[in-house]
């Protein structure tokens, strides 16, 4: 059979069947002809895959990354190139130049260059070269040199080659570039070399590509929606928070408006928990390292903890990554009786976790966070009732925040993973069966996931859908037989003897940072009235004539605990009304001659074009009802 030959330098040549030369072909499935494509693996093996499969899209993105690398090399002589990677839904190339970096304005020209190269239908070859020759060929480019040396094997390195452009052979790739038709370069961003802040900052150019034009258009539409909902963008537009790497990457600064939203949530949560029998506490953010060695966090969680601080006298203090050892100390401070159980302890506890710079993202991935945390100490026969009580609390909170799209996941250990999970088969089997029985007794649907448990016990994870349809764990309830054992916890039973309690860990809304990010994206910045940082914006038609009336209204509204602002600026009224809408204030009131004379207000609700005139008292009744019902439609 004839075929196409791929030359492997310093290796034998590989003869491929004729269908490879076509790049794309079809096969029959149930009488329907389905498209397939040929992809090559880093070892030189060629496979047929369905064009609609994830594997084919990944390989297409890898080709697109190679084409972008070739276009960068062609248009910017002397450019240094880092990683060229195909990700889950995009591809990127890292680069660095001596002069000004590639600007966003230059993406369109680069995109045309990528498409032009694709039309040339250049064949992609797998070559193996000596690492010394490969490094010599990229002399002056320290990033490419480092990648080549790291990926060398037996003195050689495998490369995908297309014309003068090469890319490391680390993932499957499409054999022909002509399939890269529907491609779009998306954005430029900064990225530390290998994701470490101690390394140089490179420029990362993102792009996406699809086989079909309609798929590309749908993807771009979804990305636009994501940009409009991105809590980082909205946070900047509404002045809610900021993060400045110069003063601390992953350490958010909450501006007054963002602080108001967060404080409203915190007050709500505390009141809700106190009403449910929790005792709120404050505990230090520092703890002796020995406590985390006892709990097992140091063994199982060390990579996510900051280095200990040596106090100079042999004491090592640790920024806490978890609150549970702190609440255990609260429990241990007194001798406990069975009459105190269930003992419910809660805290808005600040924690610190080491996150690599490349993983940090707005409020969603941070290094300092405040967890809505709680721990209940119970007797064995109280587990099921307490579990149901906690779950009811969580579902009540979801209702008030209008969170309706969620599922239940029972997260078990992976019994084969002896490094991650505490070794006690009897404990795991007992706690997992009790968790499952509690869910079954409530008649709730759930699915089971092995390998998702905490290292000390199984848990119920409540999975919510983000604004963009992604799965995210919002709340957890965890059974723990291990920590009471490790910290030797007891209570005096009715029989006068000591008994071991069971510990239930639970988080209702997770961290304040991630929850605010979630709500910002779900609401698209238009927070419901009870959460909005500014609930009422009063605009006098003439500040000289109507400003005093506006101030009188504001004082009365503030006395009713409504967050109210009066816009006294000398801007045109139309501009001030538009800005109030842009800032997504729930209620904008315009007051002029008629309103002053009649003691009324002209009300415009966010998102509506019409203004409605009503008495001051009717408006107060309206907005206070809105706040009291958590702005729910029902």
TrEMBL record:
Residues noted as binding Zn(2+) in the record, renumbered to the chain: 324, 375, 505
Catalytic activity entry: tRNA(Thr) + L-threonine + ATP = L-threonyl-tRNA(Thr) + AMP + diphosphate + H(+)
Pfam families in alphabetical order: HGTP_anticodon (PF03129), tRNA-synt_2b (PF00587)
Highest taxon in the source lineage: Bacteria
EC number: 6.1.1.3
Residue ranges that the Swiss-Prot or TrEMBL entry lists as coiled coil: 100-127
Keyword Transmembrane helix part of the UniProt annotation: no
Protein name per its UniProtKB record: Threonine--tRNA ligase
Species name: Limosilactobacillus fermentum NB-22
